[in-house]
Amino acid sequence: MSDLTRLSADTMAQQLVSGQITSVELTQAHLDRIADVDRAVHAFLHVSSEDALSAAGDVDARRAAGETLHPLAGVPVAVKDVVVTRGMPTTAGSKILEGWVPPYDATLVEKLRAAGMPILGKTNMDEFAMGSSTEHSAYGNTHNPWDLDRIPGGSGGGSAAAVAAFEAPLAIGTDTGGSIRQPGAVTGTVGVKPTYGGVSRYGLIAMASSLDQAGPVTRSVLDAALLHEVIGGHDPRDSTSLPDPVPALSAAARLGAQGDLTGVRVGVVNELSGEGYQAGVSARFEESLDLLRAAGAEIVEVGCPSFRHALSAYYLIMPSEASSNLAKFDGMRFGLRVEPEDGPVTAERVMAATRGAGFGDEVKRRIILGTYALSAGYYDAYYGSAQKVRTLIQRDFDAAFASVDVLVSPTSPTTAFRFGEKLDDPLAMYLNDIATIPANLAGVPGLSVPNGLSDDGLPVGFQILAPARADDRLYRVGAALEAALEAGWGGPLLAQAPELEIAR
């Protein structure tokens, strides 16, 4: 493997500025890595070699001409296939959008391009972001680089696997109930869900509009902060976009890396641990708490009783919003169109044939759940009640943050499971997001940082939650824990991952 692909994005950026490497060299190294291993990993649905090298060459020319560029200019990035990209296919992992090439860029993609970051391609995902394992993609499974027989998490398993396999130094994911953080936990990468509205949703193919949020997938907390600063900020095209400027996130990460958390109060959420959590996950969590104490943090227990009902509320609110958002995929305007094999060709029959052929089983399951929850006679009992629970969860967060600076828990209750292990049991699959869902319901930011290996030799994650608009706290505490962990490991956790066989 090229040593270039092993560098942190921050180090890549420094070497680009100093002239030690060029963006073309760096981008080509990652394209070569994709060619070597992605046949085994299948992190990418589309690789944009020509466009990425063209963007890299432009950055090199501008830098050589003395132009002042963005700090990350020339560092390549991968983008989850639920984010629209002009000139590149965007499928959301679904046959119903197979071959669709959008005529415009999402706001966050505009920001990546404006920063001079070559886009390597689009990453695989559960169809329409519905899943926790990337087994629901219409284009095949993505494999976990730690063990190719295991899932990389979901729905953003492609982005996490690409970063973990050193195919990309940075990636964009989206998180509706844990789809950045849970893949981060099971692949040994850093995943961040920003405050709701902190990154524009314009150009994201919506699943659940009140829950969806794009964010960074990286190999270090500082790299995540740097990417977050690129894509964050107000966007008038998104009615839910916050007017606030992006906080000084990279400064918070650099401060945290110094290892001093004196005066920081860390709340351990009682309802997000204990029974149902794998023994190795719980052990690494307790060890991480000890490291935070050693850094000067005060650790206290916090009760958030409504969190016990978060999963139930989420699986009423999310499918209800999804059933509404996915109504646009009707075979009439864009994407797949399937006409009935016999009988009259009516709008209703074309819509039924198209949606029947174009949507996978998990998407159909959630559309049916959501449509039922919104139907006459059931709206108040199901969707309305779930929204009341959501309010209680938000109040629990408010009460907790009145006494602590951040809340913590394991990110995922288990390590990566084998393919097929939970496909026939939707509830078991849904439980993978039990610790991540509350943050989406309340709109607060969350970060998952790798905090070691379980007894099965697979990575686990440590989740940090902060109040809305206080994303900088995530980066300070996350960087402090990361520094303490890596001091004990003698380097990043991914250095312990088995090397992938070259597929070429």
Q: Layout of helices and strands, plus pairs?
A:
Blueprint: H1 9-18, H2 23-41, E1 44-47, H3 49-64, E2 77-80, H4 107-114, E3 119-123, H5 157-164, E4 170-174, H6 181-187, E5 190-193, E6 214-218, H7 221-231, H8 249-256, E7 265-269, H9 279-294, E8 298-302, H10 310-325, H11 347-358, H12 361-374, H13 380-401, E9 406-410, H14 426-430, H15 437-442, E10 446-453, E11 459-465, H16 471-489
Parallel strand pairs: 2-3, 2-4, 7-8, 7-9
Antiparallel strand pairs: 1-3, 4-6, 5-6, 5-10, 9-11, 10-11
Helix pairs in contact: 2-3, 7-8, 7-16, 8-16, 10-12, 10-13
CATH superfamily: Amidase signature (AS) domain
Number of strands: 11
Number of domains: 1
Coarse morphology = globular
CATH secondary-structure class: Alpha Beta
Mean pLDDT across all amino acids = 96
Which percent range describes the beta-strand content? 5-15%
Q: Architecture in CATH?
A: Alpha-Beta Complex
How helix-rich are the residues, as a percent range? 25-40%
Query: Which residue ranges are poorly predicted, with pLDDT under 50 across at least 5 consecutive positions?
Result: none
Strand order of the largest sheet: 1-3-2-4-6-5-10-11-9-7-8
What does the main sheet amount to?
11 strands, mixed
Q: Helix-strand pattern, N to C?
A: HHEHEHEHEHEEHHEHEHHHHEHHEEH
Task: Output the CATH topology.
Answer: Amidase signature (AS) enzymes
Compute the CA-based radius of gyration: 22 Å
Structural class: alpha/beta
Total of DSSP H or I helical runs spanning 4+ residues: 16
End-to-end separation in angstroms reads 13 Å
